[in-house]
Amino acid sequence: MTAPAVKPKLILAHNHSSTIDFGSVGTGDVSVKTVTVLNISTETLRLCSSLLDPNGPFQLRNALRYLPPQETHNLLMYFTPTAGGKVRYTNIIKQTHKHTMETNTRTH
């Protein structure tokens, strides 16, 4: 059985991983990470994100925009834990042509 391979249009360029590790962060403290996405397609893409819990510990702090071919956009991710323990959250950064990219965030 064969299937055609489909090249993604959008990739994380920050460290070739889809996981953002905020490390150990104290309750009430803030950890900030910049995540770079790269448009590797030949078309301009409109970036959008899954809805984050407004009362949750993660925030995307800058606007998403149109991203021309071969251009990058920095996403500013904030993590402010309100309780101890490990936290894992999936945020989907996508473009309007149904390609999705999963970014996992975790703390220790």
Overview of the molecule:
By secondary structure, this protein is mainly β. It has a single domain (10-107), classed as Immunoglobulin-like, CATH 2.60.40. It has strands at residues 10-12, 19-23, 31-39, 45-49, 58-60, 66-67, 72-79, 88-95, 100-107. The strands form two sheets. It has a five-stranded mixed sheet with strand order 2-9-8-4-6, with no helix packed on it.
Note the topology.
Blueprint: E1 10-12, E2 19-23, E3 31-39, E4 45-49, E5 58-60, E6 66-67, E7 72-79, E8 88-95, E9 100-107
Parallel strand pairs: 2-9
Antiparallel strand pairs: 1-3, 3-7, 4-6, 4-8, 5-7, 8-9
Quick synopsis:
This protein is mainly beta. Helices cover 0% and strands 47% of the residues.
Proportion of beta-strand residues: over 45%
Structural class: mainly beta
What is the CATH topology assignment? Immunoglobulin-like
Query: How many individual domains?
Result: 1
User: What integer value in Å does the Rg equal?
Assistant: 15 Å
Major sheet attributes: 5 strands, mixed
What is the assigned CATH homologous superfamily?
A: Immunoglobulins
Estimate the helix proportion, in percent: under 10%
SS summary, helix count: 0
Question: Spans with pLDDT under 50 lasting ≥5 residues?
Answer: 98-105
Q: Globular, elongated, flat, extended or rod-shaped: what is the shape?
A: elongated
CATH class (first level) name:
Mainly Beta
Through-space gap between termini: 42 Å
Summarize model confidence as the mean pLDDT: 79
Number of E-type strands: 9
The spatial strand order of the largest sheet comes to 2-9-8-4-6
Task: Please identify, by name, the CATH architecture.
Answer: Sandwich
